[in-house]
Amino acid sequence: MSQQLAASSNALSSLRTARHKPAIWKFSWLCLLGVFLLPSLVGATEIIAHRGASGYEPENTLRAVQRAWEMGADATEIDVYLTKDDKIAVLHDSKLDRTTSGVGPVKDFTLAELQELKIRWKDELLEDETIPSLEQVLAIIPEGKRIFIEIKTGPEIVPALKRILDACTLKDEQLVVITFNESTLTESKKVLPNLKHYYLSSGKKETIDEVIAKTKAANADGINLSTKFPITAELVQQGKEAGYDTYVWTLRDKDAELVPQLIEMGVVGLTTDFPDLCRDWLPTE
Ligand code: G3P
Ligand code: CA
Questions:
Q1: Do residues 34 and 60 both lie within one domain?
Q2: Is residue 234 part of a domain?
Q3: Structural domain includes residue 8
Q4: From residue 179, how far is each of 13, 79, 185, 208, 234 by CA, in Å?
Q5: Which residue ranges run through the membrane (predicted)?
């Protein structure tokens, strides 16, 4: 950002001395200014791969996260649970049954036991894929990309989360915590105050006023709403007036029309199973 500003100010002073130069010369400088200044003024939409690029790969696996980067996603979202031995495992459901070869609650197993299991995908058990640990996912977040860690549990997970995040080499700006659970959000923001925290809401049980009030109460930084909320320009504006950016989940392969509408409304980030499609549907920025 500072490089952009320096380049822009150099361009400006050169433009001043160029007052008597031919018009084509001035035009070139104006184009250069546009290139440097526009991205910082307009801001780009953040494309967040939902459970990795889960429209193409098994959700919440290293394969899905890797695919997200190959598709040009800006961030990945994952879901996390605390294991029996106080570690953190990456999967969506509180039970193993749907997405793995195991059965029963995740919290009843150690991480090592969970990593013996195979991933179930499209009615098959995958030989080479297992439940990742949080550390394994953190290790494949490239520089400049973010990870949205969705906590699926109560605040009891927060000490383990802090221990793992403190030990990882990612910058604070790359780490985001999201959750539907208000007490988890409050505790996590208290313990990890330098990280951005966004309150998740499906809109089934609460109004935008309640979402804003809960975000405020947790000292969180933004709101992350379901497409079913439903999102309107007024709602996004209401969030903005309270000091919160609005993120939206989950965009799917049928949402070609909705994507540009959400951006028009002022939504800043889209969580999607299809990061490549979503990027293509963005209005020209
Ligand atoms: O990113 C938020 C979204 O993932 C919440 O819903 O069920 O996919 O975890 P779910
Ligand atoms: Ca999630």
A1: no
A2: yes
A3: yes
A4: 47, 9, 6, 16, 24
A5: none
Q: Are residues 75 and 212 in the same domain?
A: yes
Residues 197 and 78 grouped into a single domain: yes
Give the separation between CA 264 and CA 268, rounded to whole angstroms: 10
- Element spanning 284, H or E: none
For range 115-134, the mean pLDDT = 97
Q: Which domain holds residue 27?
A: 2-39
Q: For residues 271 and 48, is the Cβ–Cβ distance under 8 A?
A: yes
Decide which of 205 and 262 is more confident: 262
Which atom of ligand 1 lies closest to the CA of 148? 1
Looking at the predicted structure, is the pLDDT value of residue 31 above 60?
no
Long-range contacts of 12-17 (CB under 8 A, 24+ apart): none
- 238 belongs to a structural domain: yes
Distance of CA 243 to the CA centre of its chain: 19
Structure tokens at 189: 């923001």
Is the CB–ligand 1 distance for residue 150 below 6 Å? yes
Domain count, the chain: 2
Supply the pLDDT for residue 284. Answer: 81
- Is residue 66 one of the residues assigned to a domain? yes
Choose which residue among 153, 249, 270 to substitute to test ligand 1 binding: the one with the highest number of ligand atoms within 8 A of its C-beta: 249
* pTM for this model (two decimals): 0.86
Question: Domain with 276 in it: what CATH number?
Answer: 3.20.20.190
- 34 contacts 59 by C-beta, under 8 angstroms: no
59 lines ligand 1 (CB under 6 A): no
Q: Could you list the active site residues?
A: 50, 92
